[in-house]
């Protein structure tokens, strides 16, 4: 049987099922990415950094010395992306891992002391 647009009920059912499968897939991907972004830190270094308060003014100085060349002096992007609002997109643990891992070329691997990292993290959280 055809509807007013010439599509059979079977075709419409297949389209509905395909859309439902796609929706379920997208929800699963978003859930996985969310879990990755907000996972609990198990690395002792990350735990130590997160246990510290950090001072944004010191973090600013660290940023200017180590990060501004690529991310811009106001963290609005240059060679590297803008970091404005980064704490809304990444958890503190994910930010630490991004900085120390250097997994996104051309970002270098950088592992400061936990105190220095806490200061940098506090600065990034205030962008």
CATH superfamily of the largest domain: Cytochrome c-like domain
Number of strands: 0
Q: What is the general shape?
A: elongated
Rounded radius of gyration (Å) = 22 Å
Structural category: mainly alpha
Parts with pLDDT < 50 across at least 5 consecutive residues: none
Oligomer: single chain
Topology pattern, helix = H, strand = E? HHHHHHH
Q: Cα distance, first to last residue?
A: 59 Å
Give the name of the CATH architecture of the largest domain.
Orthogonal Bundle
Q: Can you tell me the CATH class of the largest domain?
A: Mainly Alpha
Given the structure, what is the number of helices?
7
- CATH fold-level name of the largest domain: Cytochrome Bc1 Complex, Chain D, domain 2
| Average pLDDT taken over every residue | 85
Number of domains: 2
In helices, the fraction of residues equals 55-70%
Strand content: under 5%
* Main sheet properties: none
């Amino acid at each position: 049987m055809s509807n007013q647009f010439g599509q059979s009920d079977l075709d419409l059912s297949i389209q509905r099922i395909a859309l439902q499968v796609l929706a379920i897939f997208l929800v699963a991907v978003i859930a996985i990415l969310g879990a990755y972004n907000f996972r609990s830190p198990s690395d002792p270094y990350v735990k130590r950094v997160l246990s510290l308060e950090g001072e944004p003014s010191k973090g600013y100085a660290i940023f200017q010395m180590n990060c501004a060349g690529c991310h811009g002096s106001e963290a609005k992007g240059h060679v590297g992306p803008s970091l404005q609002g980064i704490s809304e997109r990444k958890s503190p643990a994910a930010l630490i891992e991004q900085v120390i891992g250097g997994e996104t070329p051309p970002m270098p691997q950088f592992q400061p002391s936990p105190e220095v990292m806490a200061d940098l993290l506090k600065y990034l959280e205030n962008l």
